[in-house]
Write a structure and sequence with these properties.
Shape: rod-shaped
Structural class: alpha+beta
Number of strands: 8
Order of helices and strands: HHHEHEEHEEHHEEHEHHH
Distance between the termini: 169 Å
Largest sheet: 5 strands, mixed
Helix content: 40-55%
Strand content: 5-15%
Radius of gyration: 45 Å
Length: 511
C-alpha cells in the first residue's frame, strides 16, 4: 500500500517537470512567433517600399524616354526652323513637371550645342555658296560689260534705223541682266564693279532710272539749290541703291501710276525721296525691310527666300560699306516711301557746271520766283570771259552766301530783289551775236515768256527720233562721199560722234 503513493508522487513530479518544460517551450515558441511576425511585417514594409521605388524609377525612365523622343521628334525640328525663321517658337519639355529639373537642364544643353553646331555649319555652307556665286557673278558681270561696250560700238558703226532699234533693245536687255548680276554680287561680298568720276546727283538718278523697265513712269523733281555731285567712289553704289528702290516702286505699283522722285538739299547733305502709290507694306514687312536696309553684318542667301530677293540686301550692304543711309516708311500716296540720304561731308561735292555740265536730260531745279506783287528787275548778265571759280568742297548748301559772278550787270532796282543764282554760264559764242550796244539796257529776265515744256517722249517716239537721226547721218555721209575730197573742217564728224549710252549714269532713255 505504501508503494502507490510513491509512484504517484514520482509521476506527479515528472508531470510537473514536464509541464514546466512545456510551459517554458510554449512561452519560448510564442516569443519566437512574435519575433517572426514582427520581422515579417518589417520585411513586408520593405518590400512595399522597394516596389514603390521600382514603380517610381520605372515612371522616371519612361518619362525620360518620352522627353528624349519629344526632343528628337519635336524640339530639334523646332530649333532648326527657328534658326531659319526667328519667329518660330521652340517647344519646351513634354511634362511641365520636368521644367527646371536636372533632366531639363541636360536637354537644354543638348539643344544649345546642336543649335551652335547647326549655325556654324550653316554659315560655312552659305559662305561657300556666296564664294561660288561671287566668282561666277564677277565673271559674268565682266562679260556683260564687254558686251555692253560692243553694243555701243555697233550703235556708232551702223546707220540703219532697224539695226539701231534692235541694238538699243539688246543693250537695254543687257542692262537688265547686269542689274541682276550686280545686286547678287554685292550681296555675296563683291564690290559694285564700276568706277566713275564725280557726277551730278541728278545725273545719277537719271542713270538709275534708265536701267529699269518702265522708266517712263518715273517723274523727277529737282529741288537742289547747288550743283551737288557725288564723289567718284560712291557714284556707282548710290546708282545701284537708287535703281533697286525705284525698281521696287515701279514693280509694286500699278503700271499706269507715276513714281515721283524728289531731290532735296539740306544743311548736312542731300536726299532722294521715292514715293509710290502701290500695295504698301505691313508692319512686319516694314520692320524686315528696315532691318535689311540697315546693313546687317551677316546676310545669308537662305534668308532671302527662294528664289533669293537680293534687292534690299544689296542696298543694306552698300549702305554699310559707303556710309550713306536709307529709310523706308508708309507713303502719303498709300504705298511706300523710300529715302536715301547722302551726307555732305564725306560723299558730296559741288561741281563746276562749266567744266562738268549736267546731262541734257537731267531735270533742272526751279528758278526762284519774284516776291508777290513785285516785278522782277534783274537783267540778263552780259557775257563774261572770266571763268567761274569751281566749287570743289561741300558747303552744306549755303548758296545764298555765294557772291555774284563777275561781269553780271545789275540795275539799282535789282539790288533790292532777292539774290538769284546763275545755274549755267552763258555761252560766249551764242551771246556774241546778240550782245547789246554800249549804254543800251538789256531786256528784263522776268518779262521773257517761259518756253513751254516739251512733252515726254514715249519709247516709240524715241525710236522714231533715233531712226531719223540715223537717216540724216546716212544721207550726210552719202553726200560727203560724193565729193572728190573730204572737207577737213567737217569730214568724219558723223564717225566721231559718240552716242551716249541710254542706260548709263550719263545717258538718257527718253532722248
Amino acid at each position: 500500500m505504501t508503494e502507490i503513493p510513491v509512484a504517484l508522487t514520482v509521476i506527479l513530479s515528472v508531470g510537473t517537470a514536464a509541464a514546466v518544460a512545456l510551459a517554458f517551450l510554449l512561452a519560448r515558441s510564442r516569443g519566437e512567433t512574435k519575433r517572426l511576425r514582427k520581422r515579417s511585417s518589417t520585411l513586408e514594409r520593405d518590400l512595399q517600399t522597394a516596389a514603390g521605388h521600382q514603380a517610381a524609377l520605372t515612371a522616371r525612365v519612361q518619362g525620360t524616354e518620352a522627353e528624349v523622343r519629344h526632343l528628337a521628334g519635336a524640339r530639334l525640328p523646332d530649333l532648326t526652323a527657328a534658326l531659319a525663321h526667328p519667329n518660330v517658337p521652340v517647344r519646351g519639355p513634354l511634362d511641365p513637371a520636368v521644367a527646371g529639373s536636372e533632366l531639363d537642364r541636360a536637354l537644354t544643353a543638348v539643344l544649345d550645342q546642336v543649335g551652335d553646331a547647326v549655325a556654324k555649319e550653316r554659315l560655312r555652307v552659305d559662305g561657300a555658296a556666296q564664294a561660288a556665286m561671287r566668282g561666277a557673278t564677277t565673271t559674268i558681270q565682266a562679260l556683260l560689260y564687254q558686251l555692253q561696250t560692243r553694243l555701243q560700238l555697233m550703235q556708232e558703226r551702223y546707220d540703219d534705223p532697224g539695226i539701231a532699234e534692235d541694238l538699243l533693245a539688246a543693250d537695254f536687255l543687257n542692262e537688265q541682266a547686269l542689274r541682276r548680276i550686280q545686286s547678287t554680287a554685292v550681296v555675296c561680298g563683291a564690290w559694285p564693279g564700276l568706277t566713275r568720276q564725280n557726277s551730278h546727283l541728278s545725273d545719277i538718278v537719271v542713270g538709275a532710272m534708265s536701267r529699269l523697265s518702265g522708266y517712263e513712269r518715273v517723274q523727277i523733281a529737282n529741288q537742289l539749290r547747288d550743283p551737288v555731285g557725288v564723289v567718284a567712289r560712291a557714284v556707282e553704289p548710290v546708282a545701284v541703291v537708287l535703281t533697286e528702290l525705284i525698281g521696287n516702286a515701279l514693280h509694286f505699283s500699278h503700271p499706269d501710276l507715276p513714281v515721283p522722285v524728289t531731290l532735296q538739299q539740306g544743311n548736312r547733305g542731300a536726299s532722294v525721296i521715292i514715293d509710290d502709290a502701290g500695295v504698301g507694306m505691313h508692319t512686319d514687312e516694314l520692320a524686315n525691310a528696315r532691318h535689311m536696309m540697315a546693313g546687317p553684318d551677316t546676310v545669308l542667301l537662305t534668308e532671302l527666300g527662294d528664289p533669293p530677293r537680293t534687292g534690299l540686301a544689296a542696298v543694306g550692304q552698300l549702305v554699310r560699306q559707303y556710309g550713306f543711309t536709307t529709310h523706308v516708311e508708309a507713303s502719303p500716296y498709300g504705298g511706300v516711301r523710300a529715302i536715301v540720304h547722302i551726307p555732305g561731308e564725306p560723299l558730296l561735292t559741288l561741281l563746276d557746271e562749266v567744266e562738268q555740265p549736267m546731262s541734257a536730260m537731267a531735270p533742272l531745279p526751279p528758278t526762284t520766283p519774284p516776291l508777290p506783287g513785285r516785278t522782277s528787275t534783274q537783267h540778263a548778265p552780259a557775257p563774261s570771259s572770266a571763268p567761274l571759280e569751281p566749287a570743289t568742297d561741300w558747303v552744306g548748301g549755303a548758296s545764298g552766301d555765294t557772291a555774284p559772278a563777275t561781269g553780271s550787270a545789275m540795275t539799282e532796282d535789282a539790288e533790292s530783289e532777292l539774290p538769284r543764282r546763275r545755274r549755267r554760264r552763258p555761252d560766249p559764242e551764242a551771246g556774241a551775236g546778240i550782245a547789246p550796244a554800249p549804254g543800251a539796257q538789256a531786256t528784263p529776265a522776268a518779262t521773257t515768256e517761259p518756253e513751254a515744256a516739251a512733252p515726254e517722249a514715249s519709247p516709240e517716239q524715241s525710236a522714231e527720233r533715233w531712226a531719223a537721226f540715223q537717216r540724216g547721218t546716212s544721207s550726210g555721209r552719202a553726200a560727203a562721199d560724193g565729193g572728190s575730197a573730204e572737207d577737213p573742217a567737217h569730214g568724219g564728224a558723223a564717225d566721231d560722234h559718240h552716242l551716249a549710252d541710254p542706260h548709263s549714269a550719263e545717258g538718257n532713255p527718253l532722248a
